[in-house]
């Protein structure tokens, strides 16, 4: 009996150690971290800092944009849903996608948006899972992309990736609004800026695809 428990303990410890060794924690802002399966590629395009890792079955992507660097940007907490709506619509339009589901998600009391959708853009994975959140003027988009055929096979990895997203720092220092009192409020401004980030994300991803294609071609 003792031998059985000893063997079970070794197996559990080995599994935990393997998972720890196969994760790479990245600080994506002053207040957030996330774990990739291995060290991701990092590049900055159009002011969007992007972290990307891929294997045979899925692409892991995190895009970070400081919206306060856009002249005149502001966002009131009551307009947060409008901002997310703009991001959602532009993401679907940019990828010619069909929305499967969407819902809010909460992390440390802060609200983000979660989407699952089917994209129709050639050369891109067709099944995409996205979480996006706005904190302290920064938008963080976390994307896991795979094929419909590999949905179940990659489910554990997807959940591990999304659940590794962590908010650090004092909750009182984290705000989901940032107001520039020197500008006048304009109707639908937050919605438009949400759409802007959605389109920026699509553009950055296409640029990454071109880079990846050139790299594979040069190696071949």
Q: What would CATH call the class?
A: Alpha Beta
Look at the structure and name the CATH superfamily.
Mog1/PsbP, alpha/beta/alpha sandwich
CATH architecture verdict: 3-Layer(aba) Sandwich
Total helices: the number is: 4
Portion in helices: 25-40%
Query: SSE string, helix = H, strand = E?
Result: HEEEEEHEEEEHEH
Read across the widest sheet, the strand sequence of neighbours is 3-4-5-9-8-7-6
Our measurement of the CA-to-CA distance between the termini, rounded to an integer number of angstroms, reads 56 Å
Radius of gyration: 19 Å
Summed over residues and divided by their number, the pLDDT gives a mean of 77
Number of domains: 1
Poorly predicted runs are 1-21, 181-187, 209-220
Assign the structural class, choosing from mainly alpha, mainly beta, alpha/beta, alpha+beta, or little secondary structure: alpha+beta
Q: What global shape is seen?
A: globular
CATH topology: Protein Transport Mog1p, Chain A
Number of extended strands: 10
| Main sheet characteristics | 7 strands, antiparallel
The amount of beta strand, in percent, is 25-35%
Give a description of the structure.
This protein has 220 residues and is of the alpha+beta class. The protein has one domain (23-219): Protein Transport Mog1p, Chain A (3-Layer(aba) Sandwich), CATH 3.40.1000.10. It contains 4 helices and 10 strands, in the order αβββββαββββαβα. The protein has helices spanning 2-21, 80-94, 155-163, 189-219; strands spanning 24-29, 32-36, 41-45, 48-54, 58-66, 98-107, 110-118, 127-135, 138-146, 166-167. The chain has a 7-stranded antiparallel sheet with strand order 3-4-5-9-8-7-6, with helices on both faces. A 3-stranded antiparallel sheet has the order 1-2-10. A hairpin with a 3-residue loop joins strand 4 (48-54) and strand 5. Helix 2 runs parallel beside helix 4. The chain is globular. 25% of the residues are buried. Mean pLDDT is 77; it is low at 1-21, 181-187 and 209-220.
């Amino acid at each position: 009996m003792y031998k059985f428990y000893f063997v079970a303990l070794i197996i559990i410890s080995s599994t935990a150690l393997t998972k720890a060794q196969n994760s790479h924690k990245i600080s994506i802002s002053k207040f957030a971290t996330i774990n990739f399966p291995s060290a991701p590629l990092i590049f900055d395009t159009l002011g969007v800092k992007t972290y990307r890792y891929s294997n045979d079955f899925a692409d892991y992507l995190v895009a970070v944009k400081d919206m306060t660097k856009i002249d005149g940007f502001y966002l009131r907490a009551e307009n947060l849903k409008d901002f997310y709506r703009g991001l959602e619509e532009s993401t679907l339009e940019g990828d010619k996608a069909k929305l499967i589901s969407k819902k809010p998600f909460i992390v440390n009391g802060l609200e983000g948006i979660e989407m699952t959708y089917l994209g129709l853009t050639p050369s891109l994975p067709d099944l995409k899972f996205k979480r996006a959140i706005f904190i302290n003027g920064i938008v963080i988009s976390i994307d896991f992309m795979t094929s419909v055929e590999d949905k179940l096979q990659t489910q554990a990895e997807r959940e591990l990736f999304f659940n590794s997203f962590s908010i650090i720092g004092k909750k009182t220092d984290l705000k989901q609004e940032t107001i520039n009192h020197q500008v006048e409020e304009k109707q639908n401004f937050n919605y438009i800026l949400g759409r802007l980030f959605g389109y920026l994300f699509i553009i950055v991803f296409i640029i990454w695809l071109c880079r990846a294609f050139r790299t594979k071609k040069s190696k071949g």
